[in-house]
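In the design runs reported in the main text, the only information available to the sequence generator was the tokenized backbone. The following block is the verbatim input for one such run; it is reproduced so that readers can re-run the procedure and compare outputs position by position.
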């Protein structure tokens, strides 16, 4: 399956459609006859600002952690801690390992859910006593600086 990028547009009359934004989408539309039905599956891409906010938070938490830890190590700990894992059945049992959070693996809705689990996990397990709202505010201030 080929990935294509479209943007929703709505006319003044209220009719809505998808406008092709890349070459593959334009070719697809040009080869689709008027009135032809098309089966599609879609997903909304990740919000890059939210992605950057998450990694800024990892940097900040790693710097303030009582145990020396890199942002990459912290990410793996958080993924395991919130259950964002893949499972592999082996002859000796089930093995869990941290799943990816890259753009291809998660759309924005999935990343929102991950964020909503990661913040309280950090405030309970990594920096006990940190208030989730204060953590988010500190990240926003760090990004603005």
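Verbatim output:
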């Amino acid at each position: 399956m080929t990935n294509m990028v479209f943007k929703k547009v709505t006319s003044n009359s209220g009719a809505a459609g998808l406008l092709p934004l890349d070459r593959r989408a334009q070719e697809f539309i040009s080869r689709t006859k008027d009135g032809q039905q098309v089966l599609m599956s879609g997903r909304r891409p990740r919000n890059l600002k939210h992605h950057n906010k998450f990694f800024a938070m990892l940097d900040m938490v790693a710097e303030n952690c009582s145990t020396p830890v890199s942002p990459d190590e912290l990410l793996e700990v958080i993924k395991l801690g919130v259950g964002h894992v893949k499972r592999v059945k082996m002859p000796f049992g089930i093995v869990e390992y941290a799943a990816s959070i890259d753009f291809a693996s998660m759309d924005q809705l999935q990343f929102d859910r991950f964020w909503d689990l990661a913040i309280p996990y950090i405030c309970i397990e990594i920096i006990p006593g940190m208030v989730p709202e204060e953590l988010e505010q500190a990240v926003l201030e760090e990004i603005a600086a």
